[in-house]
Write a structure and sequence with these properties.
With about 140 residues, the chain is of the alpha+beta class. Helices cover about 30% and strands about 25% of the residues. The two termini are about 20 Å apart. It comes from Hibiscus sabdariffa.
Length: about 140
């Protein structure tokens, strides 16, 4: 968990565990949100990514809850056996609350969704900007301190 740490970054899970990060974007005028979810393995490689729109969303807090549920659904649908779910949930529904720099890939996915109308899921790949952000996380984890 990286609450408020100065140089906080995404950290990989250990072993066969998959880490799923989630975030949401919210368009208040349209009551519309987009969930961004990304599942990565211990090497930081993207196992799955998704952008899911939600209509009639009342507020940003609810958008984050939808994103958390979308992360849980991704874990279930991909049949991952060992999972860590992390996100920036604004309420106390989860204990794994992370700062934005730890959640950059999911954040980019959520904001990338504003250019699409329907859900998009990608297995073992992602749009180039998302792949680049994931590679930066891998570089950060593997770089000497």
């Amino acid at each position: 968990m990286c609450l408020g740490a100065l140089y906080s970054r995404w950290s990989p899970p250990s072993g066969d565990t998959i880490k799923i990060n989630f975030d949401a974007s919210f368009i208040v005028q349209l009551y519309l949100s987009f969930s961004g979810v990304v599942a990565r393995n211990a090497k930081g490689l993207i196992m799955a990514a998704g952008i899911i729109p939600h209509h009639f969303v009342a507020n940003p807090e609810l958008a984050e809850v939808y994103a958390c549920v979308d992360a849980l659904n991704l874990a279930r649908d991909m049949e991952f056996l060992s999972v860590i779910i992390e996100g920036m949930l604004l309420s106390s529904l989860t204990r794994s609350i992370v700062c934005q720099s730890c959640n950059a890939v999911a954040h980019l996915l959520a904001h990338d969704g504003t250019d699409s109308s329907g859900p998009r899921f990608l297995i073992e790949e992602a749009p180039p900007i998302i792949e680049q952000a994931a590679l930066q996380d891998i570089w950060w984890v593997n770089s000497p301190i």
